[in-house]
Amino acid sequence: MSKIDVKQIASEYSRAGGYNNTYTAWYRADSIRFSRWNGQTDDGRKHQYKQSKKKVFPWDGAADVRVRLADTIISENSDIMTTAFQRGTLRASPTESGDGSQSALVTTLLKYYKENKLMNEMRQEAHLLANYGQQYGIGVLQVGWEKEETKAKKPVTMEDVVAFSQEADPQSAEANLPQMIMDPEQEDAAVEVVAALMDVRRNTAKRGIKELRETGTTEIPVAEVTKNTPQISALRLDDDFFVPPETIDLQDARFCFRRVWMTEVQLRQADFDEKWVERVVATKSQPGMVYSDTYTQFTNDTGQQEGLYEIVYAYYRELDEDGMPGIHCCVFTPSITDATGKKEMLDYMAGVYPFVAYRRESVTRKFIDSRGVSEICMTWQDEIKTQRDMLSDRASLIINPPIVHAARSGSNYEFKPGTAIAEMRQGEVRYLDPPRSNPMESLSIIEYVERQAAEYFGRSTEKGDPTTAALRRQAMVDTYMSCWSEAFTMIFKLIQEFVSDEELARIAGKEVALPKSSAEIQGNFDFRTVFDVREMDQDYMSSKLQAMSQFVLPEDTAGVIDRAAYTKFKATLIDPVLADMVVQDKTGATQQSFDKVNSDIGFMALGNEPQYVENDPTAEMKMKFMEQILGNNPKYQEMLQEGGDERFSELVQNYGKNLQHSVTQRQNAEVGRVGVQPVGGGQGGQAGGQGGGY
């Protein structure tokens, strides 16, 4: 395959709809959702303007209401999907058998980024993606990596320079740096060394060397990494993101284009070719360079007038010298087709475009063939608007009907509320009879249309089928979450590529059970995010938990149920914020119980009475810890033997009896439910007997 030049890329961008800013489809969708049309007024009334030749129907000042059907459905669905994203369960599934032991570790790492480090950013992009998919039919996620460096002035002394030179290779120039700084004749050589070491300009290095020579101290700006995290961006099709119209699957697209609008400052801060940036800044407004925002109804030329410049990132596959395909990125602007701002190969993407598509529906295989809620709701919304306009106009005629009076030659009349209409019969003045229609007909039509829309989109209604509604909502959430599953798989690949051992160790210091090195997260994993929409129904979840407690937990004699995880799940359902504050991870809770028993035995060895607990749910685990602690400490065993410490022996026996009482109480409750003593109950009693016999 021959190398792709910028002219070919610009031509493909134009063909994809980017150069001419073809936003007809989403402009129409916006108009439907936000209830906007030509001639609309702030007071919700139709007005006859002198400059308009078209006569307002039915009269000047008639109702022109805004109906929010599409907006309501889009907002409701977006909220459901955003909540599903936040509450959904994220799991890592190994793709190779040897990676199974690490799946829990990498899951914890991804949850740290999702629920802590990038919580606000991900929630915002999740909500945007849901809105784009529902409103326009398609939304796109871009997955990348963001690294920011800032420079701060750090003090440097001659002692620091001497210490550095002593650790350097004796044969290197750095080893002679102190002598070079102090010798004015070697200043140029010292400038070269300092500029390369500190990554500063020559003028900055020269000033610092002069200050070191004269005062023994200086300040040099040192770059520090202030941000090194995954970057997630939700993109709008035909505005932020473009693909050729024949695209079937996003990963098989010939080109993918990401458009951004940059200020001059952003251009100069970016890692672009400096000469190219100067040409972009000097570019006048040209056809195609239009910044448009239909939400605020703002459209103006860019360039020098608005200070915004159209910058396009073009992604495409290209073969290298060895015939191996790779993802390449070329940065250009449509007004300059003979140069690029940057061109590089994204070798870390492993041949995959950094984009994930969310399609609201799959009616054909073609990528762009997916309808949004606005398109589907358009006629329903217009039908409701017609009925509501008629109801409002009818009320106006009833409250303020036209007056009928005697006709005079040459008189003109206009039919609308409060007007006077001439009548040929002399001497009679009366109100015009109101329309002979039943307003309930309009209300019935509105109710029917709203019910039809609710059934189509799976909204809950009194007359609708709750099972069908739940299935449609679940299908909507599953489609959305599968997009995030693919995105998290990409994010993990980037973490493996860009996060150092030092960064992982720093993160692990803040969170229990997080990996501390890149070796701990090696392997191939697929990530899944799942959520059951029925969890939003409190009545359903209450019955579900009740059935779990009655039929599952009592029969769990093999201990296959993770009761700690089950407790955390119940607490999260009741109050996610409170659960996050009070629920410990399983490792921390076990350690806390062990520390409690160890501390209690230590106090008893000093002759102190422990604090007894009523119905302790961790009693059985504490009994095992007590047996372990007493059995592994020769001093405790000596104190428990005959002729030892009688006070300690008596306290230990009471402590064991208190724990055994809690175990017995729990077993009695199970006997009351099932009518038999569980076979496993004897083991707890045996452990308690041993504990109390020391």
Rg for CA atoms: 37 Å
| Main β-sheet description | 5 strands, antiparallel
Tell me the fraction of residues in β-strands, as a range. Answer: 15-25%
Structural class: alpha+beta
Overall geometry comes to flat
Mean pLDDT: 81
Low-confidence stretches: 285-292, 294-305, 681-694
User: Which strand order does the major sheet show?
Assistant: 4-5-8-9-10
Share of helical residues: 40-55%
Total of helices? 23
Instruction: Count the E strands.
Output: 15
Distance between the termini: 82 Å
How do the helices and strands line up, and which of them pair or pack?
Layout: H1 6-15, H2 24-33, H3 69-87, E1 89-94, H4 103-117, H5 119-136, E2 138-157, H6 158-167, H7 177-182, H8 187-198, H9 202-215, E3 217-236, E4 241-242, E5 255-262, H10 264-269, H11 274-281, E6 290-293, E7 298-301, E8 309-319, E9 325-332, E10 342-345, E11 355-359, H12 373-399, E12 403-406, E13 420-423, E14 430-431, H13 439-457, H14 466-498, H15 501-508, E15 525-530, H16 538-552, H17 563-574, H18 576-582, H19 586-605, H20 619-631, H21 634-640, H22 646-674, H23 681-692
Parallel strand pairs: 12-13
Antiparallel strand pairs: 1-15, 2-3, 2-11, 4-5, 5-8, 6-7, 8-9, 9-10, 12-14
What features would you describe in this structure?
The chain is α+β, with helices and mostly antiparallel strands and 694 residues long. The chain is built from 23 helices and 15 strands. Helix 3 (69-87) packs antiparallel against helix 5 (119-136), helix 3 crosses helix 12 (373-399) and helix 22 (646-674) runs antiparallel to helix 23. The longest helix is centred in the C-terminal third of the chain and has 33 residues, at 466-498. It starts with 5 loop residues before the first helix and ends with a helix.
